[in-house]
Design a protein that fits this description.
The chain is mainly α. The protein contains 15 helices and no strands. Helix content is 80%, strand content 0%.
Length: 333
């Protein structure tokens, strides 16, 4: 009976994929037709050097980032659908001080996008994992997983030290935040998530998680690529010189931009690489802060753990992430 149900689910997924491919192909053909007819007319008005430069930056960031975004969401969905949650609680030491670095280091082998890290952390807490350890995993998993590190190495092909710097700075920030919560965090700040409805597992859970994560994160990648291109083209060089001329101001500017742009961690390295006018440490801060603190994460944390937690945790994480980036950047870059 179970095999028949699995086969039926597989057939339904295949039919759904076929329908999506047909509908998507028809839409692409329609768009291509319209573009082929109207493109030359529009190009006469829009093809100027600034617009051409904007499209070049936007296309480079988006095209480079999409394969890693897809790979990251596939791995994340597979973990959510096929890895039992009890695995996490069994592997972590009972001592909080030891559980925090173990949970942080688990992000290296258990990747997930930042959108999925919040519900995963809530699920770990429901299973009895110490909040400090769950929060360390929440911060580290989107920042130091293999997909992110490989994407960073490709975005910075001549700077292998950038990969090591990102790994060290992100892991250090996650562990420090876990220890800070274990020492100073108060129960009344954290609204522990209720049991709620268990997430879907198996093929159905994998398909649902993949569709949600890729479409959700893909939208932020497109917005981030557009914002990076606009920033690169529209902001006058004289304004940038004010920030790029100061090591501290450049770090703070990109740390704030990371919060606002909300670029997925699987693709933010390509956005950082496009910001070539800034120092390596400033771009490192962009990649360390983004997966840990951005607007969508703050909203997710507020909805899951409460506003009192989100305000305090996001603010402290931003400060720790920036400090970690500066120290590691000074050391390795």
């Amino acid at each position: 009976m179970e095999n028949q149900r699995t086969l039926a689910d597989g057939l339904r997924l295949g039919v759904r994929a076929l329908v999506y491919a047909v509908v998507g192909g028809a839409a692409l053909i329609a768009i291509a037709t319209v573009v082929s007819v109207l493109g030359p007319l529009v190009a006469l008005d829009l093809y100027t050097p600034p617009v051409a430069a904007w499209w070049t930056v936007f296309t480079a960031v988006a095209v480079q980032g999409v394969p890693f975004l897809l790979l990251g969401t596939v791995v994340s969905a597979a973990i959510g659908a096929f890895v039992p949650e009890r695995v996490f609680s069994r592997l972590l030491p009972r001592n909080q001080a030891l559980a925090v670095p173990v949970a942080g280091a688990a992000g290296v082998v258990l990747p997930g996008c930042e959108c999925a890290s919040v519900p995963v952390a809530g699920s770990l807490m429901r299973r009895g994992v110490a909040p400090a350890a769950a929060l360390a995993f929440l911060l580290s998993a989107p920042a130091i997983n293999p997909v992110v590190l490989v994407a960073t190495s490709i975005a910075f092909p001549e700077q292998p030290e950038m990969v090591l710097a990102r790994l060290v700075a992100s892991l250090a920030a996650a562990v420090v935040m876990g220890w800070l919560w274990a020492r100073f965090g108060k129960e009344r700040w954290l609204r522990l998530p209720g049991a709620g409805r268990p997430p879907a597992t198996g093929l159905r859970g994998f398909a649902s998680g993949l569709q949600h994560d890729f479409l959700h994160a893909g939208g932020f990648l497109v917005l981030g690529a557009a914002a990076a291109a606009t920033f690169d083209i529209a902001v006058p060089r004289a304004v940038l010189d004010v920030f790029t001329g100061s090591a501290w101001l450049s770090v703070l500017l990109l740390a704030v931009l990371a919060v606002v742009l909300c670029v997925c961690s699987e693709a933010d390295a390509f956005v950082a690489a496009s910001l070539s006018g800034f120092s390596p440490t400033a771009r490192l801060a962009f990649m360390v802060v983004g997966p840990m603190v951005d607007l969508k994460l703050i909203a997710l944390q507020t909805g899951t753990f409460g506003r009192a937690f989100a305000v305090r945790f996001a603010s402290a994480t931003w400060v720790v992430a920036v400090a970690s980036s500066v120290l590691v950047g000074w050391w390795l870059l």
